[in-house]
Specification:
The complex is a heterodimer of chains A (211) and B (201). By secondary structure, chain A is α/β, with parallel strands linked by helices. Chain A folds into two domains: 141 residues, 3-Layer(aba) Sandwich (Rossmann fold); 58 residues. Chain A contains seven helices and four strands; from the N terminus they run H-H-E-H-E-H-E-H-E-H-H. In chain A, helix 3 packs across helix 6. The mean pLDDT of chain A is 89. Chain B has 201 residues and is of the alpha/beta class. Chain B has two domains: 158 residues, NADH:ubiquinone oxidoreductase Nqo5 subunit (Beta Polymerase, domain 2); 41 residues, no CATH class. In chain B, 23% of the residues lie in helices and 18% in strands. Chain B contains four helices and seven strands, in the order αββαββββαβα. In chain B, the strands form two sheets. Chain B has a five-stranded mixed β-sheet with strand order 1-2-5-4-3. A two-stranded parallel ribbon of chain B has the order 6-7. Chain B is globular, with a radius of gyration of 20 Å. The chains are: A alpha/beta (211), B alpha/beta (201).
Chain lengths: 211, 201
């Protein structure tokens, strides 16, 4: 064992694979539970079903520390801006699961007060049917989300981000250059003016002393 | 039942109340809104009645009701007593659409405050003398009253931002003896963020 450890250990892999592996096995949910679906989620967390088998044992009650927004329950129009704000507070990368009929489509609340599906407010990755769905279907949704994450490319997203930043830097430098040129021009014209003024003064003085 | 008849006789004599014939099982009393407050006070305090619990305030819209002629709206008060088993009664007030208001009874029953707000929210009945008549269930930007029969049931209305509830909370805390020492800049009230219907202190 010691002999093995003394040798250099190198594993070659793509960065995408490693990042996705880390992401998909530690999906921390943020439970936005407004109705009975949240109770099903609670039973998913208990030891009988045990969501921590796939690394989701930490239920985070702050959007800053969570990866998956789990909308479990009916969303009314009074709730809609609050849900949107919570989604905006989550850090990238973030995913959304619409759990149950109400969150997916409004369910049987076909009335003036209920939002017909949360996809009117925020983008949704996985929908779960059922009223309420069983813990097994919640597990299925998590597995689907994991498959989805496996196809994502961290490097591609990073390249796009770097490109954006480069363009931003270029635009900023161009702006700065323009400003500097303007300042130089101003300074030059001011300087010319002062020189002219000085020349006039000198001429006046010369004329005075001549007299 | 004999008890009910006695009470009804007193109410008829004192407040000009009359019995609702459609109610075959219990006692429902129809009264003019001028006498409502006195009647409720009597029902709450008098030894023969002692209805010390207000269960609910219900709004009714009679538009399109079968074989009905009369004022469009009605407000019904459901009362219960803790002194005798299963003794309940209802008080009904008819309100026309043109003059849609009822005196508030929030000073008799504390729960009436929110129940009246709910009836106002859903039916648009104004409770005169109510200290804080705002919407209770629907959001602040909502237009119209959704439980009226002429409101299209599928007309949905979006809300742009949620209510600004901090001033209300602070007022409550100050009532309890707390004092606000300083506010951070984030929570300072911004006039642009207020919505119509939210509580501005």
């Amino acid at each position: 064992m010691t002999a093995l450890a003394e040798k250099a250990n190198i594993i070659t892999s793509s960065l995408d694979f490693i990042v996705n592996w880390g992401r998909k096995n530690s999906l921390w949910p943020f439970p936005y539970g407004t109705a009975c679906c949240a109770i099903e989620f609670m039973s998913t967390e208990t030891s009988r079903y045990d969501l921590s088998r796939i690394g989701s044992e930490y239920v985070r009650f702050t959007p800053r520390q969570s990866d998956v927004l789990l909308v479990a329950g009916t969303i009314t129009y009074k709730q809609a801006p609050i849900l949107k704000r919570i989604y905006e507070q989550m850090a990238e990368p973030r995913w959304v699961i619409a759990m149950g009929a109400c969150a997916s489509s409004g369910g049987f609340y076909d009335a003036y007060c209920t939002v017909p599906g949360i996809d009117h407010i925020i983008p949704v990755d996985v929908y779960i049917g059922g009223c309420p769905p069983r813990p097994e279907s919640f597990f299925d949704a998590m597995f689907q989300l994991q498959e989805k994450i496996q196809d994502e490319s961290y490097m591609k997203a990073r390249a796009e981000r770097v490109k954006e930043q480069l363009e931003m830097i270029k635009a900023k430098t161009a702006e700065c250059k323009e400003n500097a040129e303007k300042a130089v021009k101003n300074a030059v014209s001011c300087g010319v003016q002062t020189i002219k003024d000085g020349k006039d003064n000198l001429l006046k003085k010369v004329a005075f002393w001549k007299e | 039942m004999a008890d009910c008849e006695k009470l009804l006789a007193i109410l008829e004599e004192k407040f000009g109340a009359r019995r609702e014939e459609a109610d075959h099982q219990g006692l429902t009393v129809v009264v003019d809104r001028e006498n409502l407050h006195d009647l409720m006070l009597f029902l709450r305090d008098d030894q023969s009645a002692k209805f010390d619990m207000l269960l609910d305030i219900v709004g009714i819209d009679y538009q399109g009701f079968k074989d009905y002629e009369g004022p469009r709206f009605a407000v019904e008060y459901v009362l219960k007593t803790m002194k005798a088993p299963v003794k309940r009664m209802r008080v009904k007030v008819f309100v026309s659409e043109a003059d849609c208001n009822v005196p508030s009874i929030h000073d008799l029953y504390a729960i009436a405050n929110w129940q009246e707000r709910e009836v106002f929210d859903q039916y648009g009945v104004v409770f005169k003398g109510h200290p804080d008549l705002r919407r209770l269930l629907n959001h602040a930007e909502f237009e119209g009253h959704p439980l009226r029969k002429d409101y299209p049931a599928h007309k949905r209305q979006w809300l742009s931002t949620n209510d600004y509830l901090l001033p209300e909370l602070e007022a409550r805390l100050e009532k309890k003896g707390y004092r606000i020492v300083s506010r951070s800049k984030e929570v300072l009230p911004n006039d642009g963020e207020y919505l119509e219907g939210s509580c501005k202190v």
